[in-house]
Amino acid sequence: MKTTLIKTADRVAEGFNPPAPTTPCMRVRTGRFIRITGPRPGNEFSPRFPVWGKEYSRLFVVIICFLLAGSLRAEASDTSVYTLGLGDGEVAIQAIQPRVAALYARAGLGVRFVRLPHNRSLIQANAGELDGEAGRIPLDEAFPNLIRIKIPVLEFHGAAYTANPAIRSFSPDLFEKYRSGHVLGVLWAKDMLAGKDAVTAMAHPALLRMLVQDRLDIALMNDTAGYLALAQLGEAGSAIRCLPDFHVSIPIYTYVHKKHAAFVPRLENAMKAILSDGGRDTADARNKVYTFYSGLAFPVRTVFEHRLEEAFCRMGRTCRVVFTGSAQRALVMADQQGDGDLIRLADITTLAPENTRHLLVVPESIGQLAYYTYVRGDLPAMDVNGWDSLAAYRNGMRIGVKILEEKMPGTVIRLPDADRLFKMLAMGRIDTVTEQEALADSLIWQKGYARIRKLSPPLINQPGYCLIHKRHRCLMPDLISALKAIKAEGRLDQSLSHGRHGR
Q1: How far is CA 114 from CA 16, 84, 111, 204, in A?
Q2: Which of helix, strand or coil describes residue 349?
Q3: What are 354-400's pLDDT values in tens digits?
Q4: What is the 3-state secondary structure (H, E, C) of 400-436?
Q5: What angle do CA 385, 391, 396 make, to 5 degrees?
Q6: Percent of the chain whose predicted confidence (pLDDT) is above 70
Q7: Where is pLDDT greater, at 345 or 400?
Q8: How many CB atoms are located within 10 Å of the residue 247 CB?
Q9: Phi/psi at 375 (5° precision)
Q10: I need a surface site. Which of 125, 214, 475, 496 has the fewest CB within 10 A?
Q11: pLDDT attached to residue 178
Q12: Do 400 and 415 form a contact (C-beta atoms < 8 A)?
């Protein structure tokens, strides 16, 4: 049978013939096909089964993939800005806000913070008027619409402060014997003082002032709030000290409203990434100013400070050292909110495990720490031959020097600053003061304590090491190399000798 092909004005790729299998996929077709019959169904041109059906299927798949990719890109580069409630205290501003801002930036989400009273912020976040809460302790079922990001953004430590010289260390029965207080809204402290005749203050500095004014004996607050409040009080708070043996940990979590539940995995993965690779060599890391804390006073702090600054300069980075006025305060701040501690003895992680959980010892000495025992020159001669040789004396030491706190025998007098200790020694109220050599020599020279003399050999003479936060562990090799280079040039001992007596 003869097969007849009937064709009207069809144009395919500017021709009248059907395309070859190798013809490019971009085709233009107009007109129509007339159904034909014959023994070669493979050559049929049919409106129901066009030969280009497979090409349309491929094009359809490409379009779907393009739309899906666009959707994923839109999710990855979310341009929305989410509003989080933030407490109106300085702790929230200085400690919580930077951590949460970094978390959202790592997750690729925009965020802004609204300062509100604590209760109002929670109510609005739970109602969906805010997108979440920046930082809170674990919340109960009273706020069912808030989802907690499982990994804490930071951890506060509770602290007990006093200015009462009769209180040397913490024990739970102190709350029965002494007047105690807390700040409104600090729930863990409120629970600890439940049933006691406790004072409630509206702000942390106000509570600490009550200690100085002898209106209160013990003040409970988190340590970061305490440091900020002590900084506001300045010299007026010099008699206030933090009690040892008081251990309370308060994890702080960020929350999102349940309408943003889809973002929870992104935020949790971002938090894991921050904890694991915070020391990456990025442009942001190189522009960052790394903050190290120190309780050492002038001039010895200046010596080690210049040394660390030079090491960072050789690494192409910048650091600063912040003086806290207390060695213990410096260590806790380095562990919780800073980038490191200026100098410590090598066994600091063993002596103070609670305050060094996030810190690493840089295994290259930044200098030598020599602690000598000082006595009045008009007293009978005494020899220092290890710790036991001081067992019969009234021994003064500065709060926060962990190895002295751990090993000092006899009657121990702890004060926050060396100046007051040497004044008591000059007046005969204590028998000895053990202090870092450069600091003590400078203080004796400045105050003119001619009758105070230094006993040899030193009670402690060990290398000191810088501590760096675990999130900056990738800086460790470069920092070790820089310190080795400074040491090889013979500049460690030279800078220390120039720092003595403030000259």
Answers
A1: 70, 6, 10, 21
A2: helix
A3: 889 999 999 999 988 888 999 988 777 777 778 888 998 999 998 87
A4: CCHHHHHHCCCEEEEECCHHHHHHHHHCCCCCEEEEE
A5: 95
A6: 76
A7: 345
A8: 10
A9: -135, 170
A10: 214
A11: 93
A12: no
How does 217-244 read in b/e, with b if 16+ C-beta sit within 10 Å?
A: bbbbbbbbbbbbbbeebeeebbebbbbe
Q: How confident is the model at residue 259 (pLDDT cuts 50, 70, 90)?
A: very high
Taking the C-alpha atoms of residue 63 and residue 162, their distance in angstroms, rounded to an integer, is: 70
Task: Write the burial class of residue 350 (CB in 10 Å: 0-12 exposed, 13-18 middle, 19+ buried).
Answer: exposed
Task: Specify the DSSP element, H or E, that contains 499.
Answer: helix 491-499
Q: What SS3 class is residue 335? A: helix
Please list, in sequence order, all residues whose beta carbon lies within 8 angstroms of the beta carbon of residue 173, skipping any fewer than 6 positions away: none
In the three-class reduction of DSSP (H, G, I as helix; E, B as strand; rest coil), residue 290 is classed as strand
Residue with tokens 């702090």: 301
Burial of residue 191, with CB atoms counted within 10 A of its CB: 0-12 exposed, 13-18 middle, 19 or more buried = exposed
Lowest mean pLDDT segment, chosen from 140-144, 395-399, 468-472, 497-501: 497-501
pLDDT digits (tens, 9 = 90+) for 38-77: 444 444 444 444 444 555 566 666 566 655 554 444 444 4
Q: What is the DSSP string of 381-401?
A: P----SGGGGTTSEEEEETT-
Task: Give pLDDT, residue 79.
Answer: 65
Amino acid type, 391: A
- Per-residue CA distances from 417 to 134, 398, 408, 435, 495 (Å): 37, 6, 17, 10, 24
Residue type present at position 436: Q
Q: Cα separation of 431 and 452, whole Å?
A: 11
Q: What is the mean pLDDT of the chain?
A: 78
In which region does residue 379 sit, left (phi positive, over 0), alpha (psi from -120 to 50) or beta (all else)?
beta
Structure tokens that stand for 69 in this block: 């990719």
